[in-house]
Amino acid sequence: MPSTRPQGERRRWEPVHTAALATFAVVSLGVGLLVRTGPGEYVVAPAFHLFFSDSIHMKAWLATGALALGCVQVLTAARLFELVRFQPAGAFWGTVHRISGYLAIGLSLPVAYHCIFLAGFETTSLRVAIHSVLGSMVYGVFLGKMIVVRSARFPAWALPVAGMLLFAILAGLWLTSSLYLFSSGPISL
């Protein structure tokens, strides 16, 4: 999927660019304001933990799965942009890229529910504050990336930058939560 635009041609700033940035800003600010008031104030349903021992471990393991799928996203995107070459050729890697993206977002939804509606925005330590800020940004960046994916009006570099920004936020969230949990005691389900 390399760019077909002639070398040296520049794109001008278009309304779709503003829409992508506005979507990112509105969603991120909205999530941040929603959780700013404190934990538990917007509880829609009680906490759940699926088949895990508790909701903390559920969040850590689902976030780990989302990060692993994020790594698949980076690798398949590199293959799609022909930065790396491995078999098979053709549309296979595009399908893998889309499916792994859907699964990663799907795994992140229960985590986001617990973080947003049950924990809230916290600043009790630097690690928690960084985690809260990154968590407020993740779905805004995701929606901004989806606008870039669906529009042909962005410069060729916009999609890889949006994808890497989303992966960096996901990795930062994992580092400030799951890794912290896994390194603070015995790992359990």
Number of strands: 0
- Tell me about the biggest sheet? none
Order of helices and strands: HHHHHH
- Rg of Cα set: 18 Å
Number of distinct helices: 6
Q: What structural class do helix, strand and pairing data support?
A: mainly alpha
Shape: globular
Low-confidence stretches: 1-10
The tally of structural domains comes to 1
How much of the sequence is in beta strands?
Answer: under 5%
What is the distance, rounded to the nearest whole angstrom, between the alpha carbons of the first and last residues?
Answer: 40 Å
SSE blueprint and pairings:
Layout: H1 15-36, H2 55-80, H3 92-119, H4 126-150, H5 158-175, H6 178-183
Helix pairs in contact: 1-4, 2-3, 2-5, 4-5
Short descriptors:
mainly alpha; 66% helix
What would you note in describing this structure?
The chain has 189 residues and is an all-alpha fold. The chain contains six helices and no strands. The radius of gyration is 18 Å and the shape is globular. The N terminus is likely disordered.
Please sum up the structure shown.
The protein has about 190 residues and is mainly α.
